[in-house]
Amino acid sequence: MLPSPGEDADKAGPVRAMFSQIAGSYDALNRLFTAGIDLLWRREAALEVLSCGPKEVLDLATGTGDLALALARLAPELEITACDFTEAMLERARHKAERAGLAVHFLQGDALALPFGENRFDAVCCAFGFRNFADFGAALSEILRVLKPQGKLVILELSPPGRSLTSLLYRAYFEQLLPVLGERLSGQAAYRYLPASVAAFPSPEALAQRMRSCGFQARYRRLSGGIAALHVGVKPEVA
Ligand SMILES: C[S@@+](CC[C@H](N)C(=O)[O-])C[C@H]1O[C@@H](n2cnc3c(N)ncnc32)[C@H](O)[C@@H]1O
Asked: Using a 6 Å cutoff on CB, does residue 142 contact ligand 1?
């Protein structure tokens, strides 16, 4: 059963099952479907995280660990904890870190009930994970809790496509071709969930508003003509 595309209290089980099934093909299909641009987006996100000079960072919904590993490459002295609730994705991440000789502490954990005390991290980041959470408000409150005052949240997410001519072409690729190719190559229907979940996701402005109403100072910038967005939130001194 595919997860429902939007926020839904019963989403966690189907999301975990879906990522367990596609863990083996996840990295290769990401590279293929984005022509490698996903790596450039994660690098942007990592540079945004590092611009606040953090000592301890949490990569949330780390999956196969690409953002955590990008951070470790750029800042070898950084203390990086990376958590996800799907063990099959974490297994890949640990293997990649070991092969690359990079130090990241990977652990299993739910973004809606983080296994950390309050005011712990200088920065929290999340690449392509936020859209999968059952409750965005609950996730933002948890992140706010574990961030230090003045700590930074960086969210990288795909954005709902617009209605310009280029967007229509992108839509045809993303909504029609990609799910079929994804199903053929991975043997899983999960790639039908991807465009559906992006269509159901708030626009960058709406997500920034939700971050503000949870207590963050929020801004964002669009990437690659608006098909992705980088959100930045700062926890105020007095939250
Ligand atoms: C699309 S993958 C993104 C992985 C990685 N961050 C990347 O950049 O490729 C989404 C990940 O979010 C994780 N996830 C979804 N909901 C979660 C939750 N509530 N707590 C922890 N991880 C979650 C899934 O297990 C999956 O590994």
From this structure: no
The rounded Å distance from CA 131 to ligand 1 centre is 9
Low-confidence ranges of the chain (pLDDT < 70): 239
The two structure tokens encoding residue 163: 């209605």
At the topology level, CATH places domain 12-234 in: Rossmann fold (3.40.50)
Cα(116)–Cα(146) distance, integer angstroms: 7
- Tally helices (H) and strands (E) across the chain: 9, 7
Instruction: Identify whether the C-beta of residue 56 lies closer than 8 Å to the C-beta of residue 124.
Output: no
Q: Which of 86, 140, 193 to mutate to test the pocket of ligand 1 (most atoms within 8 A of CB)?
A: 86
Q: How far apart are the first and last CA of the chain?
A: 39
Ligand 1 in reach of 129 Cβ (< 6 A): yes
CA distance 160 to 170: 11
In this structure, which long-range contacts are made by residues 35-41, counting pairs with CB atoms below 8 Å and at least 24 apart in sequence? 37/224, 38/66, 38/128, 39/66, 39/70, 41/127, 41/156, 41/223, 41/224, 41/228, 41/230
* Interval 163-222: pLDDT, tens: 788 888 888 888 899 899 988 888 888 889 999 999 999 999 999 999 999 999 999 999
**Measured CA distances, 108 to 99, 111, 115, 134 (Å):** 20, 10, 9, 17
Predicted pLDDT at 163: 77
